[in-house]
Amino acid sequence: MIKSGIKNLRRISTKSIYLVFLTALVLSLGAVPGMAAEGCHYNSNLMGQVFAAAEADLGVVGPQNTLIITDIGSPAESYVFLDDFYSEFDNRNLLYTKNLLTVENSRNSPLWFAFFNKCDGNCTYVEVSYENESNISYKVTENINFDKLSKTNESRDAWSEKVNNLVFNGHEFAILTIANAWATGNLDYELMQCLELHNHFCPGVSSGYVLANWMEENYPLKDGVSYTVFSCPNWCKEDVFVKRWDVTPGTGGIWVSALTDNETEALGGSPAGIFVVKDKNAGTMKAVVLGFNFDVVNANCGAKDTDPGWVSKYLADLWLMDQKNWDTEGLVSVISVMDIDADTLSEMKLADNNPYVVLGLLNSTESTQSSAAEGRHRNSNLMGQVFAAAEADLGVVGPQNTLIITDIGSPAESYVFLDDFYSEFDNRNLLYTKNLLTVENSRNSPLWFSFFNKCDGNCTYVEVSYENESNISYKVTENINFDKLSKTNESRDAWSEKVNNSVFNGHEFAILTIANAWATGNLDYELMQCLGLHNHFCPGVSSGYALANWMEENYPLKDGVSYTVFSCPNWCKEDVFVKRWDVTPGTGGIWVSALTDNETEALGGSPAGIFVVKDKNAGTMKAVVLGFNFDVVNANCGAKDTDPGWVSKYLADLWLMDQKNWDTEGLISVISVMDIDADTLNEMKLADNNPYVVLGLLNSTETN
Asked: How much is the pTM?
């Protein structure tokens, strides 16, 4: 049943870690009933007021000169304004790929907007309040042209003072660097997509983009090739890998830990991580150990030791934006390349193990062959053809009956179709919060669309090819109404056979579960947002949503409160925490490792992880250790041992969607709560340490 479908949660085997390569288009778009959430005061004119406030200071907000940066969709219940925001956006003929960056943020962050005019460098920053009354709570306009601000000591000091005074409420660096880089016209859109997840533009994320491109050039993401990343040490770069390769913590694609200074020096002073390249067609697995040397950046970018941080970091970003600089000697180095097997990979994931120790710290200089990326062929009519193909089988694609699920924006260079897609979408009066879920995927995945009609359960799945010529390469229509498919043994067997034959090219489970849950009208939009990152709907991600809500209820995200998550063991739930709390690997908010069967049993059989709650206002830090028991789900959701996985998992999802069930005895348990300090937190992050051992909940004999 569910235990064996996700992983055996009573005895978690490291060899059965759930590895699925899936990620989130961070534009935070989804599809559920767009009703105002309880506790949120919805004002349908608020977004118009926000745009008007910007235009009062900047003049016309138009497609030739404007970049809008906003965290809409991330702060709690801010999704109620999404449709109004995009209505204002569309009415000004703004384009999604040219005039907008939607960044992730935590749930207890304010809802804010920055409107930047590249012609004169002026930027209007607006915050809104919507808890009791919906209104603009703060507005300021500043000139953030980097050349002007950095020109003299006086101008630098003046801006530094405004940064210290939080003129943009703490977003000064993010807005200045992103806006100025965009204004150069040289900011790669695929790098810009990574900034959505990371929330700001810094040399750390730029270095990740360089490393990602190095990997793709030397170990191309051909069909059947995937990466697993051990980002050790961590420094912002991780969010590029999550976004670009769909290696999310919840799918087991990325594992994050820290190194001591001595370990860093022993690895040459600048280790960047271990990239495991699995080629399932060739049956090979290689561990590629890379280094990245920031001394090379510092020596070439033009920054001075006396520069304030916002100057030196932006100059480093500009230098790293220029792809000609990526071949600079010593910037990216190969520490080692070696063949490994599945057992070695499993060992590298364990909480007690340092992955470099597992590999023996070899110093091979094995070389690899590079290949240039192929150009993409853009057909401006292709998206119209996709919608027409769906309507040929389903009838009118309209706002009352349709859910579109797509990975557009994730496959390599598929962003070239984004504006055309949204044009077709808008022309049918579809709504972003009611009719769309954009899911993350890896760069070597196909570009696909599913159109689901909830009235009759029919679903048209479309794939397109755009490498040489742009056209529809595959189309099929199936009825995926869950009640019909699961009604009899014959209907179950028939659908299971189609799943085995990959009728939707491997996306059968994702499309069936998301579409049917959406059709119930009870799928919480904020859970739907998490599915965008995780790429499918399973009890693992549902359990994460229940755990996240438990934490927020018992340790509320008040002003000054933040979480750091040690998700150990991992099982899909991690992607909820990343999406909901903005605890990305690159920001050091989440640390992922595995447990042995003995460790799991010693912790009561169902540990879920350690949630460190830091309250900077109170000066406290607590480690909250929780468990989650899937036996309780199995006993209550109505699934049978004989059910196929797609049935039992969906029934578990339905049960966990009902928030009344979250209080069921034994579902969530508190294993321990203790006060800790910063030194303890740092120890928990180290690659050699098991965080439960650091907290005294396990001893060394139990970890063997």
From this structure: 0.76
